[in-house]
Design a protein that fits this description.
292 residues; mainly beta; 8-stranded mixed β-sheet; 5-stranded antiparallel β-sheet; elongated; disordered N terminus
Length: 292
């Protein structure tokens, strides 16, 4: 199917994300009530301190590199949680995160954000999860965690590791020369090989809620590099197609774009692309017209 030369918008990709944060314009959402009963794990471990825990990818927290940690008090006393931490061989451990949650006995499951670090890609770690929970009185509990949708976090981990491998193979960037045309700018998208190896191709390039990327008269792949041709570029136009109040309110990563890249005959891997330098300046100038 032809995917180029037309508007292509990326509103939000949860569980992709791979490792690049934006300017941090998304605040952590408050604890949300339990998901429907059919999403609860079939088998649960024994409670620790009266608590059971689940984990899953969550669109509310993905932009800040957080999973949704479900906590349920199945004990007889109120439990006040003050700090949380994820422990898994899949991701680097990050410091304890403050999160005030009061769980009543026999109450509903609450989902709160728990941050995770960079993917660990130096082997084949088991997909196991534990939550370190610090209570109001300072007591620290270690809860075994069951994944809500088995394999979902593992798939995210594999995508992040594939993206990390791609960044070692190629450099994808916007060019330094941009021309303004009303609410759009024209320039180049550049792909450069960093080390010899299999051919690498950019199959697609997508914009954000506000911006649209257009590659005119181009069939996929739009860019491809090999050992014989290690550098390639293609003219592109980026336009601010949506400046309505709803789009501005929904835009959490205004200047974060998405490419789909393949190595050899493997499946495409999503790779985020953030404009810097002249490209960022040009897009900021266009975006300023949205908020005038």
């Amino acid at each position: 199917m032809r995917r180029f030369g037309r508007a292509s918008t990326w509103a939000l990709m949860a569980a992709l994300v791979v490792g690049c944060g934006d300017s941090g314009d998304t605040a952590s959402a408050p604890p949300s009530p339990t998901a429907p009963a059919d999403t609860a794990p079939v088998e649960a471990p024994e409670p620790v301190g009266g608590l059971l825990a689940t984990i899953g990818t969550n669109r509310l927290y993905a932009l800040d590199r957080g999973f949704g940690l479900g906590l349920q008090n199945v004990g007889d006393e109120t439990v006040a949680v003050r700090e949380l931490q994820l422990d898994s061989p899949l991701f680097a451990t990050v410091p304890l995160a403050a999160e005030e949650v009061q769980l009543e006995p026999g109450g509903r499951r609450f989902v709160v954000p728990v941050p995770y670090g960079e993917a660990r890609c130096d082997g084949g770690p088991a997909e196991t999860f534990a939550a370190v929970v610090v209570l109001d009185d300072g007591e620290e509990l270690r809860l075994p965690v069951v994944e809500e949708y088995p394999g979902a976090i593992g798939r995210l981990h594999r995508r992040e590791c594939a993206a990390a491998d791609l960044r070692e193979r190629v450099d994808i960037r916007f060019g330094d020369q941009w021309i303004r045309h009303g609410d759009a700018v024209s320039g180049e998208l550049i792909l450069e090989q960093l080390r010899p190896g299999d051919p690498v191709a950019v199959e697609d390039a997508r914009g954000s809620v506000i911006f649209t990327i257009r590659v005119d008269d181009a069939e996929p792949p739009i860019l491809r590099v090999t050992d014989d041709e290690p550098t390639a570029s293609v003219p592109i136009t980026i336009s601010a197609d949506r400046c309505d109040p709803h789009a501005l309110a929904e835009s959490k990563r205004t200047f974060m774009f998405l490419t789909w890249v393949t190595v050899g005959e493997a499946e495409s891997v999503p790779l985020e692309l953030e404009p810097v330098g002249a490209a960022r300046t040009a897009l900021e100038d266009v975006f300023a017209t949205c908020t005038d």
